[in-house]
Amino acid sequence: RAFLYRLWKGNVSSKMLTPRLQKAMRDYLNTNKHGVRFRGKREARLSGHQLLCELRRRVRVRTLDGKEAPFSALGWEKHVPAVPLSQLHPRGLRTCAVVMSAGAILNSSLGEEIDSHDAVLRFNSAPTRGYEKDVGNKTTLRIINSQILTNPSHHFIDSSLYKDVILVAWDPAPYSANLNLWYKKPDYNLFTPYIQHRQRNPNQPFYILHPKFIWQLWDIIQENTKEKIQPNPPSSGFIGILIMMSMCREVHVYEYIPSVRQTELCHYHELYYDAACTLGAYHPLLYEKLLVQRMNTGVQEDLHRKGKVTLPGLWAVSC
Ligand code: C5P
Fold it and tell me: Cα angle at 129 between 250 and 131, to 5 degrees?
């Protein structure tokens, strides 16, 4: 519990994690699988408001538009949706909910509150059926990693989870964001199932995030963290928070920073226990959470009891 209380105050470091998680982090630092070469400075001096202004200044959600090689030569301009993600809600959304898949959301009774938002973001294969009381049943947008598209166990083609929602997929690319290299050797080949799905469902908005957007978020996390963070992409959760902050006037994030219900249960919909799901091993999740904690404008009571963080939309911040 001591760790949780310190996390609520933003006063934790990786040194307080279990030796197993610390070793996992060190191993990822040594492997540097994606060839990260950070050129900036690492410091943690910005206030929450300054951080928000930094994000407003720099973060631009970007998806593949098919205009760059190798996608241009492959005719992707015709394959991607005609309307860009950033223009799907041209007048912007008022309130948005980001629902993390953490086990801690079980028994929260947050479903009704979550569904009262204009838009609700969920992740990967997180279901609503059977969990409505705690997570609600409205889904506007779903962020999916490349394993969802490629692993047959997720039934991407026919599961109702991926129908009637805006889909945003991503895959870890090299830090250089060299699209040719990435296309030849994605982590999981999402390109083929993406094109297939676009052809079968031309009216469903479905995007692939541009690697530059993902690594720009990573740079911002590292620049605002004293410690060296894992040289791997931010988690889907952090990516989703920033997408919603770009599209909504106010964003409520649920069970990202854990509530008093904190548990090692990885997902609310799966009997699997691992503290790494909440604190990070591959992803720089702990550091993402510390930044979000700094930017939280909500009251402590909401954080403790609901695991709820309030963030202003980037265009609602005055800088
Ligand atoms: O595991 P998955 O990536 O599908 O979960 C979606 C997001 O929810 C994660 O990327 C992470 O940001 C967040 N999460 C969390 N704590 C957990 C499980 C997920 O913060 N126990």
Answer: 65
User: In the predicted model, is pLDDT for residue 279 greater than 90?
Assistant: yes
Element of type H or E holding 44: none
Indicate yes or no: pTM above 0.80. Answer: yes
Position 91 scores a pLDDT of 81
* 65-91 pLDDT, tens digit each: 999 999 999 999 999 999 999 999 988
The rounded distance, in Å, linking the Cα atoms of 16 and 18 is 7
Place of tokens 């963290």: 225
Ligand 1 centroid vs 102 CA: distance in angstroms? 6
237 Cα: distance to centroid of ligand 1 (angstroms): 6
Start-to-end CA distance of the chain, whole Å, equals: 36
Q: Which residues line ligand 1 (CB under 6 A)?
A: 100-103, 123-124, 235-238, 256, 266-267, 277-278, 285
* The pLDDT value given to residue 1: 82
Note every long-range contact of 44-51, with CB atoms under 8 Å and residues 24 or more positions apart, other chains counting: 44/224, 44/225, 44/226, 46/224, 46/294, 47/294, 48/294, 48/295, 48/296, 48/297, 49/317, 51/224, 51/291, 51/294, 51/295
